[in-house]
Amino acid sequence: MIKEKLKVVRDEIPQHVTLIAVSKTKPIEDLQAAYDAGQRHFGENKVQEMVEKAKQLPTDIHWHLIGHLQTNKVKYMAGFVNLIHGVDSLKLMEEINKQAKKAGRIQDILLQFYIAQEDTKFGLNLQEAMEILDSQSFKQLKFIQVCGVMGMASNTSDHNQVASEFRTLKQFFETLKQNYFQDQPCFKEISMGMSGDYPIAIANGSTMVRVGSKIFGGR
Ligand SMILES: *Cc1c(COP(=O)(O)O)cnc(C)c1O
User: Fold this and answer.
1) Global pTM?
2) How many domains does the chain have?
3) What is the pLDDT of residue 121?
């Protein structure tokens, strides 16, 4: 069942877009089924849950922490997490940098932007992001690498609004690329699109989609 659903989603996604299977709340057997069908990128929104699952599953999985992150949780995943999507403060960057240094790694992160017309979603606006990137404190962080941006569109059936929010995120990406990351090929990811809106996200420049319920069923 998971195998078939995974194939349906995969067939809709172009080669250059990474599919992250969002497995939060789902049991190990479900992740294993997706893994057996060839899936290697998995997304979780809770650090502890991701750590537990990572211990039980093959080590060639790429783990993505996609949820809101508290500084006191960073240390538990610093040794293995591949990409942290929800980074929205300098304080969090400093803690990630500290733990990455301890673990002997350069940690890839994405800056989370607020693009939705809802007040429940976390994230930066463009000015806040630029203030962070301009700061001396940021420039001293040698153990993190900013690889792009992440955002969530409004939960609405209005396609035009969702498309417009994704275009906004794409513009933020281009602006930051131009002003801060022109000579950094690592800065290339736009993480946007979930089960309900990933085709719209891909049409508007997404490079990573985070798809949960459409693969694993409802939560
Ligand atoms: C849960 C979650 C997803 C996946 O949502 P679905 O609607 O199940 O595809 C994607 N991104 C984030 C940040 C999430 O928390």
Assistant:
1) 0.97
2) 1
3) 65
